[in-house]
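User: Structure please.
Assistant: Input sequence and predicted structure:
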Amino acid sequence: MASFKLLPALFSIPNTNPYRKTTIRTYLSHRRLNVILEPSPGGAKTFISRFAADEPRKGSDILVEALEREGVSHVFGYPGGASMEIHEALARSSIIRNVQPRHEQGGIFAADGYARASGRPGVCLTSSGPGATNIISGIADANFDSIPIVAITGQVPRRLMGTDAFQEVPLTDITRPITKFNYLVLDVEEIPFIVKEAFVIATSGRPGPVLIDIPRDIQKEMAIPNWNKPIMLHGNASKLQEKALLEEIVRLISQSKRPVVYAGGGCMNCSEELRRFVELTGIPVATTLMGLGVFPSTDELSLRMLGMHGTMRANYAVDRSDLLLAFGVRFDDRVTGKVEAFAENAKIVHIDIDPTEIGKNKKPHLSICTDVKLALEGINKILEKNAAKQVIPVEKDIPMTKYNDNASSTWRKEIEEQKEKHPPSYRTFGEAIPPQYAIQLLDELTNGDAIVCTGVGQHQMWAAQYYKHKHPRHWLSSSGLGAMGFGLPAAMGAALAKPGAVVIDIDGDGSFMMNIQELTTIRVENLPVKMMIFNNQHLGMVYQYEYEYGDSNSMHSYLGNPSNQAEVFPDMLMFAKACNIAAARVTKKGELREAIEKMLKTPGPYLLDVMVPHEAQVMQLIPDGSSFKDAIRGAQ
């Protein structure tokens, strides 16, 4: 796989898409860069092609080899008329394995899960028309959550473009607002250059999705590829030149009495640096939904998740803080609530690689636009040089900061009082299974080491709240877009990216049904995905809002059979049986431990249908547009 040197330059990317009449320029970040291909350190110096250097080959074969050169090992591709040539080329590859989903949305969510779990770009492939439009939600999800995906779509032949031909859609126009960049390939000789560039764009700066749309006649055209054409584009240099600002941050920390770290998905690649920073300063850490696992929730300095469904102590700490260190976050509305009241008494330090996020929702007092990893490395060096200034704790059994005592005993005691005053709590229902208890039991039996994927809804929040997330890239969830149906295919991708890992899809019956067809893929590929479905026969979050916080009018949240509400409908076990997947149903709390143990011990895929009361609620809750002081607390 190639690596790239990033150097200042003044170039842009022309795009001669016939669906656009103007030449566009892409600005990936605040730095302009010239990207020059170099061999990967420690990697193969030369890629060995199955073709002779001067041998003509189809555009589809050039595309597949370009993917091979980028280190791609898995493609999630669903074939169709406009992509058949590419699938035939994939069949000729001895490097890339095509995993065929049963729906294109399942394919792109699997690519997303693969990317989240591995940190490498996920690749999906579809045909034109409806096949291509079926991946729109997946592209939007990757764009929201900054996930590197390269989506490849077939297109009608060039001579038919713009004629409303069968299964023709202007996909580059449709996806322009939700991709980092997209391409319409109009020259077979551009394929090596475009693929190379697409992977750089998808992974550099703030990661995100890139789309490549390839007409069918281009796929068939013969050419001799040029693999050495340099690429030049705007991008983000991995440099940090603001040392004075880092020293100012250290000064602010030394003056602070109630500092808090607010860490998000932008810390995914710097978990070790974040831990070292906390070790040096003793500052407590609250994480976003995207940031779960970047700092271990089992650590005594973890406040766990903040925001709408976060812990009371995390939200309290941010509300009371006098210094908020925002690392790799975007001040999302589900975190801030009433934004003007969020951390209103704190000086805010915002470090993020995306310049558009600085000051977009909340104006910082000090900001640095760079990779959080580089900033933390620089801050840690300053802290380590000042190690002689450490204050030795004087109170027995009171953990104090190793750098200064302003963030020590008084502040820690104050936060701990909130933990004792407002511990996480939930309602019980006799022998019925509280979903929160099921998550706690799963955490215990997996030692918090599983890769947890979720759909979207109540089960997503319970999994975020009650599973003890200890590792980065072990929490896979559609956070910004909130796409139901994400969990099952994402678990497929994670299982392929991390063979040998325990991969669990914690799902709700409504969300699970959105992409239930992927049970077929899981069985055919023999992926050891464990599926733990919280089945309450409802769209639980909708039910919670309409009956607890709305006017109690039903908004069609019941998913069972209205003519026979006593039966479990649909029967998830029958779906599993149809796909030859081992499955069981558990209805009583006393039987749950044994049921989960069996799920974890059974080789291969397994579906556990956990019946839970539809009255169970997600707590704690800060209502939309409200502040921490308006939180609804504890079991209801």
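Residues 1-17, 20-44, 391-401 have pLDDT under 50 and may be disordered.
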